[in-house]
Each structure stands twice: as structure tokens, then as C-alpha cells.
Amino acid sequence: MTADEESANVRHWARESTSAFGRTVGTRAALAVLAVTLFSLTLRFFALGSRVFHWDEGRVGYWILRYAENGIWEYHAVIHGPFVYHVNKYLFQLFGASDFVARAPVAVVSGLLPLTAWLFRERLNRVEMVTVGLFFAANPIILYYSRFMRNDVLLAAFMVYALAFYTRLFDTRKPRYLYAGTLMLALAFTTKENVLVYVVTWVGAAVLLLDHRLQLSGEDRAEALPGPLYEAVHAYRSAGENDRSPFGAFGKKLVVRLLSSRWTLHVVLGLLFFFAVVIFFYAPRSRGIAEPGLWKAFSNPGLFPAVIEEATVGSWESFVGKWGEGNQKSYIDTFRSLGAVLWKSSAALLALAGVGFLTDRYVGDKPRDVVAFAFYWGFVSIIGYPVIVENAFPWEVVHAVVPLAIPAGVGLAILVRWGSEAVTEGDAMSATLAALLVLLVAGQVAATAATTTYMHPADQYLDDGESERNALVQYGQPAEGIRPTLERVRYAATNNEGTDVLYYGSDFYVADESENDRWAAGGGWYDRLPLPWYTEMYGAEVDSTTDVQEIESNPPPVVVARAGDRQVVAQQLDGYRAFEEELTLWGSETVFFVDEEALPPEQRGESG
């Protein structure tokens, strides 16, 4: 073998070895991301149906059940986007309605968030992909509201998916990522109206990134800007002053280039795809009533213009109007309230997000767009949401925490790398300090998630001494302990004919119960929440009265009244047991009177 042949063989072996090593590292990283994703899904699905529905879950759940029954739905911004309505309608029809099934879509969509780290694999190293995934999986505020039938986590997750697919599009130039990202963006528009805030935030973050690149020197700028954009900027600067107008030589060349680009067709198809998804979700459904509806239009195409107009123009007006007034309260008070939730639930994430962003921007060889973009997105959300939210509810901080998980994962990876290098170099002090910091972060996240999500998911306080409030539980959450009483109501309704549940008192009274079949419900229906979700799910016949004599004449197996009316109602009932519960965290004491004979056999004769 000649020297040249031997050299060629060595080079060939080196290339194959390098390629094999890359595949091995990539496979290990992919398996690690998959493991984190399985961990994320497990955290969400474990005992998913154990917490009783929050008021907000209850009202939406009730109207989904009514929609599944009567086939009538139309968009109302006050109860947010149509995604959970349409998805859960079909899930209820397939698997039956339950707390678990109702929350499953949010659990799945958020549980798969760690997979997005793999789409960022050109921008994040393998350790960072895992640490970013871990923050998506176990951050307490993300985890708590991933087990909640609300749109906030859905919106944040879909926007991260969109960012990940669009980033992958930029890295690979493969059109399929354009359509995947557009689908995620369209689904985000079907969740909640503050997607408009996301769009504004994204535009602002993109402008900042572009400005960073334009400030680089000529050689660096050529590498930093996307090819077509760099060429456009260079052509603009090279053009004469008269040629820079939209109708000058530069403008004409730009238009010709855009029209001749192979991406023009994909962009047009992407826009059509976006509107098709939005129209499908927002189009009204009108089975059995004399109004235009999506399914009616397929048998009567003349209805399509009205359906499309309602799904686009009509929904847009309501969509934008939801955010027209903004926060009517003090910015400082709202900022403090949301800031307290953010700090108690995500202190480690906040600190590491700052570390990750600053280190990547000022210490690394070249700042990475995805890290800066996510940090700007999250930071602006922290300072911006107190301006726009109507109420300082804890779920609002989701919109800042989810994007900040990306730079926070980068920050955690720095600690891991620091510790790994210290071990390699035999620096015991640095290795120990790095390990302690990582354990401190893991401990804070794990302890907070365990107490808020699993141990006290419906409690006002996290300790028996009632000294530490649960920052993640909102007032509309029924207090812990109501589930056994709900099961008694279920049993009584299942084994009864006629009216099953009678509400007494002005708080609960509705003159005509059929008013509750479509949004908005009548009278005191909202003060019953979340009970309407459960009685509808149980198939219970419900009525209400303000006449105490009506109770005595023909009492149903279950009578519900405020605790203040307990004695008045008790005098009208014989052989009933009373169970007092809170329909919110506090201040809503409600008594359930259940006929002794309507209780499960094993509970009859017990003291009330």
C-alpha cells in the first residue's frame, strides 16, 4: 500500500468515525429528549382527574356538554376560543365526559413541549435540549395549569411549537416545516384572544434581532443575516437615492425576485392553510336552528359566504374587542400580584433565564437567536401583561414562564457544564458548588411542583398552620373535600325519576332552566358553578325555587342551598342528611341536603 493510499484510508476512516460518533451523540440526545417528554406526560396524566373542576372549567365544560347535545355553537370572546369546545366535544362522544378526559387535550399539548427542544437542535447543544425540556416538563406554574382545562397553556405551547417549526424551516429550508409551523400558529389563534399580544411580542423580538445583526461589521453581517435578506439590504444600500423607492429599480427587482421565488407558492398556500384552519374552528354550528352553520353549508353551498364572514370578520371584531379596554386597575398592584406568583412558582427559572441570556449574548462566541428571541418574548410579557389583563389571575404568568424556559434551560446547562469541566480538571471545590446549585434548582422546582400540583391542588394554604398561601390556586377553585358529596349527588340522580337536584334561594335561582342551554346562562346559574358541569354530566334533572314551601310539597333527593338558609330548608325536609361544602376557596358555604334513602347503601345510617 502506497503512502497516498494509506493516507486516503486514514482520512476515510476518520470521516466515517466522525459521522458514526455524530449519529451516536444525536441518538443519545434524541433518546434523552424522548425520556424527558415521557416524564412530562407522566407528570400531567398522573391523577389528572383528582382535583374538582374550577369555576372556569365548570362553565366551559357545561357548555361543551350542551354543544355536544344540541349541536349549537358560536364564538363568544368572553369564554375564549373554540379549540377546547370542538376537541372536547368529540372526546366526550368517544370516551365519555369526565374531569380526566376534559383536561386531556391540555395535558397532551403541554406534555409534548419537551420535544420542541429537538427541533432546536441546530441552535441548542445536547445538554441544553435536555435542560430546556426539563423546565417545560416540571416548572410548577406550567405543570399546574397543564392539568387544567384552560386555554393559557394551550396558547403558549402552540406558539412554542410554531417557533420551533419555523426555526427548523430556517435551518433546513424544507417546506414541510412552513406548513407545520403555520398549523401551530393557526391553532394558537383558536385558543385565546391574547394571541394578538404574542404576535406583537414576536414582531418586537424579531426587530431587535435584526437590529443586532445590522450593527455587525460587514464580514460578520454577511454570515449573520439570512442570505436573501442580506442581499436585499446590500442591494438597497448600493442603489442610488432615486432607485430606493418602492417604484424604483430596487423595488422592481425585489418584486420580480419575490414573484419568481419558489417560496412564493408555499407562502400563499400557507396563508390559505392558516385561514382554512381558523375558519373551520370559528365557523358557527347551528343544528336545529334557522341560522347559518358550517355543516349546513356543505349541503347548501350558498351559506358558505355567511359562514366564512362570521368565522372571520365577525369573530375578529369580537376577538379584538375582548382586549380593547385592558387593565382598569393599578399597573403597580397588578404587577405586584403577578410578580408574587411568578417569584413563588418560578424563582429558579427567572434567575437561570437571566444567566442563560446574558452568558449567551456576552460570553459566547456568537449570540444565538433562539435564546435571545425567547428571552425578549418572556421579558416583555412580564412587564406587559399587567397593562392588558383584566384581573391578576395566576394563570396569566404562564405566558411569560413558557418562553423563559428556553433561556433558563441554557442557564441550567451552563451549571452542568461548569460542574462537568470542574470534575475533569480535578477542581473539587467548583464541582461541589456546581452540584449544589443544580440540586438547589432541582429541589426548588420539585418541592414547589409537588406541593402545589399534587399535595395541595385545591387548598388555599400549603401548610396546616395556614402561614403559606398557595399562589397557584385561584379563588374560583372549590375547596378540597367536595368530591365525596358530588359522588352522593351522582348516585342520587342515577337512581331517581323526575327532578334530581333542586336549588333554593335567590343566589341560585333561574326562572327558566332552559335559559342555561346556550350562552349566556340566566339568573343565578353562575353562582352554582362548578356544579352545573357535574349535574349535566350525571344527567341530573335540575330545577330552582325561592319558595321554601315548594321544597316541602315534593322534595327531590338533593336540595342545594346557601349555609345561611340551612335552618329554613332543614325544617322542610325529613330524613335528609346535610353536607356543607365550599364552592370556592372561601366565602361560599353551601349545604347539600341528600335524602337518606338516596345515599349509597354503605353510607345510610351514618351520622351527618
Description:
With 608 residues, this protein is mainly alpha-helical. The chain has a domain at 483-603: D-Maltodextrin-Binding Protein, domain 2, CATH 3.40.190. The chain is built from 24 helices and 7 strands. The strands form 2 sheets. It has a 5-stranded mixed β-sheet. It has a two-stranded antiparallel sheet with strand order 1-2. Strand 6 and strand 7 (589-595) form a beta hairpin. Helix 10 packs across helix 18 and helix 17 runs parallel beside helix 19. The longest helix has 43 residues, at 3-45. It starts with a helix and ends in a 13-residue tail after the last strand.
Write down the overall mean pLDDT.
Answer: 87
What is the rounded distance between the termini? 96 Å
Structural shape: globular
Number of helices: 24
How many individual β-strands?
7
Biggest sheet, spatial arrangement of strands: 4-3-5-7-6
**CATH class call of the domain at 483-603:** Alpha Beta
CATH topology (fold) name of the domain at 483-603: D-Maltodextrin-Binding Protein, domain 2
What class would the helix/strand composition place it in?
Answer: mainly alpha
Low-confidence stretches: 10-14, 17-22
What percentage of residues falls in helices of 4 or more residues?
55-70%
The major sheet is characterized as:
5 strands, mixed
Strand % is 5-15%
CATH architectural arrangement of the domain at 483-603: 3-Layer(aba) Sandwich
Tell me the radius of gyration.
29 Å
